[in-house]
């Protein structure tokens, strides 16, 4: 199991039957592949869908918020983006799962721009992290060059402040509670010293620290 699969599998365990969930582009889209058989969620997309499903037949006018082909499940709803953002901003999305460039110990998130690089904009991330009831960041623990992505303070432009509830990487799971960052799980074969060595942020260790469970749909 590679890093992204491990992360997606662990995040899937946080989603409950009946939840309305927004999955960001990239790694978060893998989460749907690992939902337990008894958990059925409704996927929401900022461009105007409730009830996204797997692609059964590509249609040029049917794409998700990232521009990739998508499917629609029976009973789904399609509406304009104004209605979609009203759902998000009104607190009707139970959880969102987003990728991250940086997360810091104060639950701040930077995930929309790398300084000096051209981007189309932050999309709906800013709305999701303030409107969703639970914000889960799914990202690899370190950058490709080995540098830390979990910092004392984000150095890239922020998407939101104090908005992250949970951070899942291939090495560990963190929760942010009352302004404090807690290590609650480590991946199999990974000890706390390894997590500390690859994490710039300061964090506390939960008294109930456990090993990350590798369960869920295959």
TrEMBL record:
Key word Transferase present: yes
Keywords (A to Z) from UniProt: Transferase
Entries under Gene3D superfamilies matching the protein: Glutaconate Coenzyme A-transferase
SUPFAM superfamilies: NagB/RpiA/CoA transferase-like
Keyword field contains Transferase: yes
Pfam family, one: CoA_trans
NCBIfam families assigned: pcaJ_scoB_fam (TIGR02428)
Family stated for the protein in its record: Belongs to the 3-oxoacid CoA-transferase subunit B family.
PANTHER family assigned to the protein according to its UniProt record, in alphabetical order: KETOACID-COENZYME A TRANSFERASE (PTHR13707), SUCCINYL-COA:3-KETOACID COENZYME A TRANSFERASE SUBUNIT B-RELATED (PTHR13707:SF57)
Protein name: 3-oxoacid CoA-transferase subunit B
